[in-house]
Amino acid sequence: MNDATSRGESSKDRSLAGRNVCVVYDCLFPLTMGGAERWYRSLVDHLVAAGANVTYLTRRQWSTASPEWNGVKVIDVSGASELYDLSGVRRTAPALAFGFGTFWWMLHHRREFDAIVVASFPFFSLLGLRGALVGNRTPILVDYFEVWSSDYWKSYAGEFTGTVGSVIQRLCIATTRFAQVFTSQSAQQLRSQGFRGDVAVLPGLLSSKSDTIEVPVTTPPDPPMILFVGRHVKHKGVRLLPEILRATRASLPELRMTIVSDGPERPEVENDMEHFGLSNAVTFTGSVSDKTLRKLFEEASCTIVPSLREGYGLVVAESVNVGTPVVVANNPENLATNLVEEGVNGFVVEPLVDEIARGIVAVVSRGASLRASTYEWSARHSAHKSMEHSAHEMVDRLSLLSHH
After folding, report:
1. What's the CA angle centered on 124, arms 120 and 125, to 5 degrees?
2. Angle between helix 387-402 and helix 35-49 axes, rounded to 10 deg
């Protein structure tokens, strides 16, 4: 993404030259490598290309000097902390610390910015901005990557904490004037929870074809290999992986699985793999570079997304971008299903182990023809659903709002 400046030069004509923009999120790419982090990396690079002076508020994720980022001032407003508890649920204390740090810092710099972009979650940073900017007309543009139902809040964090979380989410929505989402379904979820402001549905988060391989890998791997990419936490469905591998190997005995990233659920997943006698059929890679991750996508028969929830499904986007089909669990909060065209770039299946296994077998049986149609799907959609296109639209949006 470091070449976003050259790709974004056309933004200079729309121009944010001399404008001061603040971006607020408690994670920073590549120190953490989730979908939101990648989006903000691309967005900020495009803002800089359009002439903006960008300040990025985050929590401390480094042990020495602040990371160097061309044209960007990176400021830590809260200390280093572990974001997740042992069950994979976001901890409240780091979110509160980041929210208070954001409030305190912005209170002392409240007249310095022409516009602010903030992730809705963790909510306390948005509430901190609101508190610090009372009486100030600086536009705050809020990215709603996910909008959770009250039922999901309770299943995620428990009855009491989930209820509180749901109430705070509604409070944030009620105080938001300008919102951005990446799917029309997210826009509908916002409206259903009382949003009455201006919502922009950005094009998407697919990679531009200029960012990837020119010739797709159309030969299926032999033996077949399935790939999981995601933090090892409950809502990613990572605990299902041993059962999925065991069930699928009943039909494809040579099948292997590669599991990328890390997290609090990893020891239990490893223990279950050993219990089922699957240790020799699985590879745990931990965190990997973008280059290595792309190679793993290319080498996989398919990528599986058994998540309970996804706000967009960047893993699906990255997989189909190189021609590797996907199998996605049809959970109500899993919006990654919106990126799947049945039988063209993969399959949406019921969120049951046996159904996911059948989806994998179907992908492997379709072989090269499904890989070819997956890459063709990506080629048709990458230009108008790309992260780059979304960043360009945000430059336009910020240009209009910051000049008024």
Report:
1. 65
2. 60
Structural domains in the chain (count): 2
| 146 plus 192 within the same structural domain | yes
Pairing mode of beta strands 256-260, 178-181: unpaired
Phi, psi angle pair for 119, to nearest 5°: -75, 140
Residue 368's alpha-carbon distances to 171, 228, 301, 349, in angstroms, are: 49, 20, 10, 21
**Residue numbers in the chain where pLDDT is lower than 70:** 1-14, 208-217, 403-404
Give the model's pLDDT for residue 35.
85
Backbone angles phi, psi at 24, to 5 degrees: -125, 115
Q: What is the CATH number of the domain that holds 373?
A: 3.40.50.2000
By the 8 A CB rule, do 315 and 303 touch?
yes
- Residue 51, CA distances (Å) to 54, 138, 313, 391 in order: 9, 19, 30, 14
Q: Using CA atoms, how far apart are residues 88 and 300, in angstroms rounded to an integer?
A: 27
Q: Are residues 50 and 115 in the same domain?
A: yes
**Rounded distance, CA 217 to CA 323, Å?**
7
Counting beta carbons within 10 angstroms of the beta carbon of residue 93, is it exposed (0 to 12), middle (13 to 18) or buried (19 or more)? exposed
Q: Which domain holds residue 247?
A: 209-381
CA distance 145 to 234: 18
Q: Which has the closest alpha carbon to 126: 84, 176, 78, 81?
A: 176
| Statement to judge: residues 251 and 365 lie in one domain | yes
**pLDDT for res 15:** 83
Q: How far is CA 261 from CA 201, 227, 287, in A?
A: 30, 11, 4
**Euclidean distance between CA atoms 339 and 328, whole angstroms:** 10
Give the whole-angstrom CA distance, residue 311 versus residue 183: 9
| CA torsion, ordered 21, 26, 28, 34, to nearest 10 deg | -120
pTM of the full predicted structure?
0.85
Query: What are the tokens at 248?
Result: 């699928």
Q: On the CB side of 280, how many CA atoms lie within 13 Å of its CA? A: 3
